[in-house]
């Protein structure tokens, strides 16, 4: 069977891809506790995105199934064996600082911009396009092909946990939520909550009323807000503006009703490499440590800054690194102070040859010695396939054939749905030359790259299904 396209057919597929992806990207599919109900366990927007994709599948001649709103799939073909393609439709919050609103997708310079364009709606649509194209060519797969779409990847993976209690586990598969050529290893991932109760500041000359930074553990905080009251607020205001002027951050300081409201903005990035961003949490904590706050609060903030200002775990004494997957990374995804309680959400990603048991006791001891409570909220162990594993090599060969490269398998610090499969790896859809914009302002993908990914996925499906 020839997997070739005329220029006319290519343009038609590209137009279809752009049109359907823009509609999907316009749906604000972020977790929304306020609209949770039966059949939409993560909120209205996420459910709307799932229903849209399932309807698209049925329109294209496939079978679609909604699994109680937790996830859904689009299936094609017959046979006992099942090939799974796992992606997700939920996205992180849009955030601020965009050139255009994050859920008003637009095309510019051959790229499509919107929250979720790269992570993961663009790649999911590319995988769907691959299925649709093969179907229209008349391909008859000898195995069942199932595009499985999750809805809680950016939080706790409740979607996949629920889905695979109800549905069949694919015999083999891949996740289009990483980068090419093929990912054979993913770091371990741990989400940790750290809390500390502080003695009351009442009566102190300068008081921190509230402090809030960040939204998600898997994002470098873009914005931090702090409110102070007490004496010398004009001096604090001037000092903050001087601090902003001398730093890489932006910010404002407004004095209103005897309260000083500070806002600091940095640059968001995916937590798998915190150094790609500038943490607004870290910037605000650094400034607060310069103020004459109550001793117990200042001591705790100073300890936070000392322990978490580097992203490699040096001060925490948990650093590790291996050749296969790189260094351990530490990201404070959110930090708050209110009602004398300090709270941190910490995301740690550790190398595939490391273990939670090696570093977790040291981390816990460091924080507990300072009066913090430590609670592990989630742990995903590393996954690892040998580079010569048949699935890894098969997918790698297809990529190299399409690109003319002689690439080798790679590892990542992210966590993909490949972990939800008994036998699966992450495969695209980002190309090595494309800078990651996942979780960042002005997130985007190259349309030509996504079309190329769709053709790679089509051959992968064709090969695996035969």
From TrEMBL:
GO biological-process terms attached to the record: L-arginine biosynthetic process; proteolysis
One GO MF term: metallopeptidase activity
InterPro entries for this protein: ArgE/DapE_CS (IPR001261), Bact_exopeptidase_dim_dom (IPR036264), M20A_pepV-rel (IPR010964), Peptidase_M20 (IPR002933), Peptidase_M20A (IPR050072)
Matching SUPFAM superfamilies: Bacterial exopeptidase dimerisation domain (SSF55031), Zn-dependent exopeptidases (SSF53187)
Protein name, per record: Dipeptidase PepV
NCBIfam families in the cross-refs: dipeptidaselike (TIGR01887), PRK07318.1 (NF005591)
UniProt keyword list: Dipeptidase, Hydrolase, Metal-binding, Metalloprotease, Protease, Zinc
Cofactor(s) demanded: Zn(2+)
Species in which this protein is naturally found: Pontibacillus halophilus JSM 076056 = DSM 19796
The keyword Protease is assigned to this record: yes
Family to which this protein belongs: Belongs to the peptidase M20A family.
